[in-house]
Amino acid sequence: MANSKREALRSLSESADAAYRGLVDYLETLQRKKGLTGTPFRMPVRSFDEARRDLAGTVASGNVKLGDEIVVLPSARLTKIKRITGSEGDLQNAEAGAEVVITLADQIEVATGDMLAAPQNRPSVADQFEAHLVWLSPEPLLPGRTYLMNINEGNVVATVTALKHHIDVATQAKLAAKTLNLGEIGVCNLSIARPVAFDAYADNRDTGAFILRDRGSNATIAAGMIDFAPPGDQHSSPDTNRGQDGSHEADAPSAVCSMVYRAACGGKIDYRQLGRRSTQCARCSLGHVGRRQCTARTEPRPRLHRSR
């Protein structure tokens, strides 16, 4: 019995090693941009001190300097950099790979997993996307089951809504499949509980990758690489206007689905967060320091049909 257990464990280990080797070989065939310092500025928020307006994280790509205007996603709030602090003190700028604390010029509500980015070249912000998935668990993928996604320093509940095909890493052939087993790679559609900011993996390997964990055991079960967000599923508007008091007159989300309601005050109420309704209005939450509840009457918006 002991020998059979050892053989089973050895087999699983060899399968996992083969999965990693196959994944590395396959990724070499994907288009990538060389170098991260020449790509747009991205910094996922690892931790924050909202009272001091300090956001800590690692610059994933690009560079940023004092006084630069940046956008905080997914809220799409614009602000400027007041201070950059590194391990040895204040800095004038920060490049890809630097671990820094960025102090914002404005009081903005942020959360772990939010992303700082260049306003002129923003990442996608969506709650659905297509991705390559390498399965690392002895338990097979179950489309429709919920998992925990770790992406850009944040955690969010995720569901594999469809497995489009399995990829033979030897021939790169696309094969029909209903599940993925240990070591297999497939292309999937995923839906997450709230919008997050990300890039395609081909554009940015740091902000375009994620892992899936089992919600019960917290074990890593898959690694993913984002291909793209479906057309019409972008929730971040590139055009936001400031009022005289510095607040934003236009709320950030520009695309809506059946999970977004329009309030009588002209804002939108989004209750995607963990699938539960929220009484917080996008116009109120983005137009004031801190969050205020909007008690306005809501009306359902028609669902947008996204192309497949």
The major beta sheet can be summarized as:
8 strands, antiparallel
Element order: H for helix, E for strand: HEEEEEEEEEEEEEEEEEEEHE
For the residues shown, what is the average pLDDT? 74
CATH class of the domain at 124-228: Mainly Beta
The fraction of residues in strands falls at 35-45%
By CATH, the topology of the domain at 124-228 is Elongation Factor Tu (Ef-tu), domain 3
**How far apart, in Å, are the first and last alpha carbons?**
49 Å
Overall morphology:
elongated
Which stretches are low in confidence, meaning pLDDT under 50 for 5 or more residues running?
31-35, 236-308
Number of helices: 2
Structural notes for this entry:
There is one protein chain. By secondary structure, the protein is mainly β. Among the domains are: 124-228, Elongation Factor Tu (Ef-tu), domain 3; 260-300, no CATH class. 10% of the residues lie in helices and 38% in strands. The chain has two helices and 20 strands. The strands form four sheets. Strands 1, 2, 3, 5, 6, 7, 9 and 10 form an eight-stranded antiparallel sheet that branches. The protein has a six-stranded antiparallel barrel with strand order 11-15-13-12-16-17. The chain is elongated and about 50 Å long. The N and C termini lie far apart (49 Å).
